[in-house]
Amino acid sequence: MPVESIIFGAGCFWGVQSAFSRISGVANTTCGYSGGHVENPTYEMVCNGDTGHAEVVLVEYDTACLSIDHLLDAFWHCHDPTTKDRQGPDIGSQYRSVIYCFTPQQLATALVSRDKQQGSGRWRSAIVTEISPAERFYPAEAYHQHYLEKRGRF
Fold it and tell me: Which pTM does this prediction carry?
């Protein structure tokens, strides 16, 4: 099974993880933190907004049965990529819209996908999603993993 990884941030990582976990071909999802300047951040540190990290989900997927385009479509549909540092009631840079790519091909595909979304007429405002090469990923604490599923919410 050829597996690749990509990192998505679209607000609180609980809902993002739940959304991507239900996609056929996704092998694994892990809540965590990325995009900041502090090593080994904790949830409390990230919530304080001083680490620069976003709440993100590392998505590992089987490229033999799931395309990056399908994952990007799911990403664009699971949040509002036009709101800077906010998703619904969650406010702060840790909730920003991000795509962190592990390969140049993923990066190019994500940029084309963003441009296609922007030109689709679906969004009234400009897409503010940060798209860049992946930096270090720090897994979140165990109690955050599959949080909504553990509580029967999805």
Answer: 0.95
